[in-house]
Amino acid sequence: MTDRGTRLMRFSLRVFLVVIVLLAVVLGLGSLRIRKQRQFVSTLQQMGGYVEYAHEVPPDMLVDVGGELSAPEPPGPVWLRNLIGDELFFSVRSVHLPTDASDDDVTSLKPLDTVEELWARSQGVSDDGLAMLAKYKRVRRLDLEGAMVTDRGVKHLLGLPNLESLDLSETQITDEALATLGTLKQLRHLDLSLTTVTDEGLSHLTNLSNLESLRLNGTYATDEKLKALRSLMPAAEILCVTPIFSDGKRYPPE
Length: 254
Known about the structure:
- By secondary structure, this protein is of the alpha/beta class.
- It has eight helices and ten strands.
- A hairpin with a 2-residue loop joins strand 2 and strand 3 (68-70).
């Protein structure tokens, strides 16, 4: 073999070894991520919750394949998924806590950096639980309907730079929380229904230039204030009705 051929073989071997090392590192990191995600999902399922993965879609968005509806396959080359399995390419996008979840349940879950949507509709979740949920830094949608969250807890939302959709309906917030919410300029959807917010607090929301929808059903918002908000926030759809429950009571009480 010539010197050129020997050098070429040595170079090829080095490249091969580098590729093998890089592949081992990637698979090693992937294995750690899989274990962490698997533990997260297992813990959540044991408490009665569930997750949705990034490659999953709602039923009305399933793909029609040969006359049959099927969900898209996980990302990644088929040959690689066949070799090492699909789980490496699974990524948790949405987390649904059970309706009886507690702050302790939230604490037992070690945050995943892939989560973009969180549902925590539980009276067992308070400000302390929200402090833990605020560690999911990529969250874009947060649903806290009915949670025992107060003005103090809302301040934890300042640590979520990607938050676009927020549901605080039936929580314990007051006008003080709206001063905090008014600084979340990235918000696009906000639900404050069935809370005790008033005209005074709503004035803090006029700087939310990206807001597309604002729900104020069953709040103390007056017709005069609603008119002013619609004038100052023409791009936002502002909904406000006074619900009447089965027992004939109105909310908020007059």
